[in-house]
Amino acid sequence: KVTQHIEKANGKPLFSFEILPPLKGQNIQCIFDNIEPLMEFKPPFIDVTYHREEYEYKELPNGLLEKKVVKKRPGTVGICSAIQNKYQVDAIPHILCGGFTKEDTENFLIDMDFLGIDNVVALRGDAVKSEIYFKPEKEGNTYASELVTQISNLNNGIYLDSDLQNTNKTDFCIGVAGYPEKHMEAPSLDSDIYFLKQKIKNGADYIITQMFFDNQKFFDFVDKCRAAGITVPIIPGLKPISTKKQLNLIPHRFKVDLPDDLIMEVVKAKDNEAVSQIGIEWCTAQSKELAKAGIPVLHYYSMGKSDNIRQIASEVF
Ligand code: FAD
ipTM of this model? Predict the structure, then answer.
């Protein structure tokens, strides 16, 4: 369990990272190729994201639109099981409210339990492209806090079907998302932290943050969480910039700020190779400061790339 890994580390910062399932049609070898260069830094756990279905519309010859449901990156739980078997490290599937009924969620958790997966990150998920706002399934969870309650219930042997109560109890360690610069839909950081606390009250064991590029935002967020009575570990999420395009993409997609100094360095870089080097240096400096401040785990968003994370880890761990 993540919380046990943190306890065992006794204050020494741990290295962990997140990977994406490959696009449908690709082989699991690309996952192993992503992981392998990072294993020497002994990650106690690796996160695997979950990607819900999207709707695509195809125009038919008669002018009508055909709606197609596509799932581009399936395989989250299968990948977790394969990682655990191959590397003997804990793999953590992300699970969403979006696209799942409570029954689907329960069955997903039972699969995980049977595969020996003891950790999960509980998330709401974003709106799909065709929606303006996130819409839950008819019989699904609306907020991550409700999903946390469902997982905690299962840990206590409380199933949706009352005939099954007190049969097999699961034992999941539950992570949830936190946003140092607030979640994009939240009217304020304080209200976002108020609801973050709800996730902890409902049974979440730790928080992993959205990426940030200015450590002061993380430190202020931790202070605010502590002042609000949140005592669980808060794990920073870190992402090294690697392309010029990300200067526009990251603020747009994740609603996080990039510091002016970083922006200007990237703007002046002659190519993406130079950008990648800037990203590595920036993220290494962030990591060193966080490690020095006694942060228990540094968690990297690999997004399918490991060479830059490898260079950072070799400087920090
Ligand atoms: P919630 O905690 O439910 O919060 C969503 C919004 O609702 C917030 O603005 C919050 O303030 C507000 N809110 C919460 N409860 C209430 C309430 N009771 N009443 C009113 N407002 C409320 N997405 C994926 O699709 N797959 C992934 O694998 C994935 N992994 C992620 C990992 C991390 C570490 C992070 C930070 C994000 C990840 N995401 C992933 C993105 C995430 O799904 C989105 O950011 C999503 O929009 C919010 O999810 P959440 O769990 O934070 O939602």
Answer: 0.99
